[in-house]
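[audit] Reproducing an earlier prediction to check determinism. Same input, same settings, fresh worker. If the tokens differ from the archived copy the diff job will pick it up downstream; this log only records the rerun itself.
[audit] input (479 residues):
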Amino acid sequence: MAEMGKGVSAGKIASNVQKKLTRAQEKVLQKLGKADETKDEQFEQCVQNFSKQLTEGSKLQKDLRTYLATVKAMHEASKKLTECLQEIYEPDWPGREETNKIAENNDLLWTDYHQKLVDQALLTMDTYLGQFPDIKSRIAKRGRKLVDYDSARHHFESLQNAKKKDDTKIAKPVSLLEKAAPQWCQGKIQAHLVAQTNLLRNQAEDELLKSQKVFEEMNLDLQEELPSLWNSRVGFYVNTFQSIAGLEENFHKEMSKLHQNLNDVMKTLETQEGKPSTNALTVKAQPSDSSPAKVNKTPSSPPDGPPAESTEQKTTNHDSEEPAAAATFFVDTPSVVVSKSPSQPSEPAPDITPKKEAEVKPAAAEKDSNQSSSLPAVVVETFPATVNGTVESAAPKVNMPPGFLYKVRAQHDYGATDSDELNLKSGDIVLVTHFDNPDEQVGADEGWLMGIRETDWLQNKEFDEHKGVFPENFTEKYQ
């Protein structure tokens, strides 16, 4: 039995080796143009579509795995952030239990989102791509069977074409045998050679029919399966991305609720535990009901700390009901400078023409100017507008936007976060103007100024289209 198994195995190996040699020889002849090759352009197009579909599916699978890895990393980062909040949240603070519950739900949401992505997207993708290796193997096998079919066809055609040559070859030995063999033996020899030739031809024909049948069966199955597989990609892509989009939408909805709850807890903590600062120097006027939300906006600090020191103090005295404007204003009409100083009036700026000064002190300051608790002195300085040392009339400047006050230079870059804000680059010159609504001027006390970049004004002269607000602490006085 072992010898029979070895014999069968050796025979199969020899048969496979012979097939490989035959196929290699056939391919060489086809490349050299000495043998024709069976072509099927429709099937070749299906194979190209299959290769494209496999490439796209493999890329989608890779990117989906990357997306899942990112979701997992975000889960870990979010989990650590909530754990940090739990650690720093003191036990006696209000909302301690709510904070713990929010952290727990946050972790559950991330876990559920990741698992649903795996179940409804990644596993479906793996199943979709799982059918490609088998089809790819069958396409390769179909190519080998096509080479076998072409080889068998060429062999049979060569035998058919060589029939007359074979008859000639057979006649020669018969003529030689006629001299050495008796008459009755010559017919048998000729009949044997003819039978041998016919046998070879019949074997070649049988091999041709067999290879043709195997090839056509495989070819027919693939021609039906490949177009169907190609058309299925649309539905698969739609289902995959709909699943991902739906899962992500639901995840963000639920996460948004948690964030809102956390925001409410933080507001409660701020209200009950937060204490207002007692050393605030600036008294802010309350905006009217018609004031925009921009007035209550707190400007962010510049990236490198506060700008260069300014000679003007920003605090104002709100004895009247009207909101105070900025500490110092430069206007087109004779300028008015309002400054506060603990014990003496502010000094006039250098290189400015002679000015009229009028000191106005509160009654409390007049009674006891030497006491440290007295109100600071208020100096009102009036400057006529000057150009090259010459006093001009109070007419407004024609080259400045309406309501122009003074110029500032940006000390830091500022990126606008709203449509009514200015984008600033370090070094930009901004023309500061009055707010359109007098009530909005309270914004100056909140750290915001209204204006237009000088380059926009000089190039366009379209004030309403290019004006905007910007944080004062990102700039310094320029003129």
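[audit] rerun output stored. Observation attached for the diff report: The chain has two domains: 26-270, 302-347+354-360+374-477.
[audit] end
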